[in-house]
Amino acid sequence: MPFKPVSIRGTRREIGAALGKLARPIMEPYLDQSRTWQALRPWRGHSYLESLADTARLRLPAIWEELEGLAEGLRLPLDDVLLWHCRGDLLHKTTDGCTSIALRDAGGVRWIAHNEDGDPWLYGRCQLVDVQPDDAPGYVSFYYPGSLPGHTFAANRAGLVQTINNLRIRQRHAGVPRMLLARAVLDCATLPDALTLLRDAPRAGGFHHLLGSAHDQRLYSVEAAPAACSVLEIGRGYAHTNHLVHAGSTRQAQVVSDSSRARHDKAERALDVWGGMAQPSDLIALLHDDSGPLPILRRAPDDPDDENTLATACFRMDGGQVTLAVHDRQALPAQTIVL
Questions:
Q1: pLDDT in tens, 8-28
Q2: By CB count within 10 A, which of 80, 163, 233, 283 is most buried?
Q3: How far apart (Å, rounded) are the C-alpha atoms in residues 117 and 263?
């Protein structure tokens, strides 16, 4: 069955090794065709990369142990695996996109829906993983081969939901690589814990985190960038793509692609039309909208950002339970999981 979760259990190092072994058969051809990997290779051995490693080891020792295990499972040098995880911290433009929508319906049920957009080569080659560390709540996440989970869409067994949108920030700052910080959020038990982590950690790169919980009525949009971390509590509906939009955040230097701007505008217009009357099917229909030259559902071989939609997720949060439906470019889900 498509997107049937792969179960992984154990210590941090064992989990990393299992994730690496899962990706090992396709990692070499994946990197060989990746223009992002070509652009990263001049950074090998750079002192700035070592400073990012030092900060990650100090701030997130458990996540660093997973990274070490991942390198073992992939049979790749740890320095190269770290470099791959720092792609968004080092390069201003990578093949990571995404569109996220949050909605609170009239009954108080919270919804987060998300298109995971990435390297077109990865379509059909990604998986869901069900990960249970010995010392954390555990989570279900979309898994890019060779990258620790957390920077896509996921929910943990404490009821926390996170979706990530790439931000193309033109600033570099010594700190925790953004992908490792996103992974660390999945170890948090509550929304306040996640917000504290994102605010307090030094941030090397920029991500947008859309956060919700099965145990908390609040929804949050967090623009975590090197210069500042902006937190916005969401009202009834909200949309975010791949550029900073919070008041004050837009002063930071960033790359705003035509696709990101067009997807955000189209989603905002839909939210205005819906008001408080939207249904979950409306969220999926919006994320599967392929109309116009810069659609939300992206499957064109000549996409201007070199990205395609790899999967669509819809999370329902209510009554202490998270239900995740994963769609493969179809209205009906390919997989439904209750946490």
A1: 999 999 999 999 999 999 999
A2: 163
A3: 12
pLDDT greater than 70 at residue 308: yes
pLDDT digits (tens, 9 = 90+) for 118-139: 999 999 999 999 999 999 999 9
Nearest residue to 191 (alpha-carbon basis) of 227, 237, 231: 231
Residue 123, domain member (yes or no): yes
Q: Are 52 and 175 in contact (CB under 8 A)?
A: yes
Residue 2 has pLDDT above 80, yes or no: no
pLDDT at 1: 55
- The burial of 215, by beta-carbon neighbours within 10 Å (0-12 exposed, 13-18 middle, 19 or more buried), is given as middle
Task: Measure the CA–CA gap between 120 and 323, rounded to whole angstroms.
Answer: 27
- Does the residue 176 lie in any domain? yes
Burial of residue 113 (CB within 10 Å: 0-12, 13-18, 19+) is buried
**For residue 90, is it within any domain?**
yes
Residues with Cβ < 8 Å from 274, sequence gap 6 or more?
237, 282
- Cα distances from 293 to residues 49, 262, 298, in angstroms, run 38, 9, 10
CATH, residue 233: 3.60.60.10
Question: In the structure encoding, which two tokens stand for residue 81, read together?
Answer: 């695996």
Separation of alpha carbons 272 and 290, rounded Å:
19
How far is it, in rounded angstroms, from Cα 282 to Cα 256?
26
User: Coil, strand, or helix at residue 273?
Assistant: helix
* 92 touches 170 (CB < 8 A): yes
- Non-local CB neighbours of 105 within 8 Å, separated by 6+ positions: 111, 276, 278, 279
Closest Cα to residue 284, out of 157, 121, 113, 169?
113
Residue 155 lies in domain: 6-338
What's this model's pTM, rounded to 2 decimal places? 0.97
Is residue 1 in some structural domain?
A: no
Question: Domain tally for the chain?
Answer: 1
Quote the pLDDT of residue 93.
76
Q: Which of 199, 172, 194, 174 is nearest to 184 (CA)?
A: 194
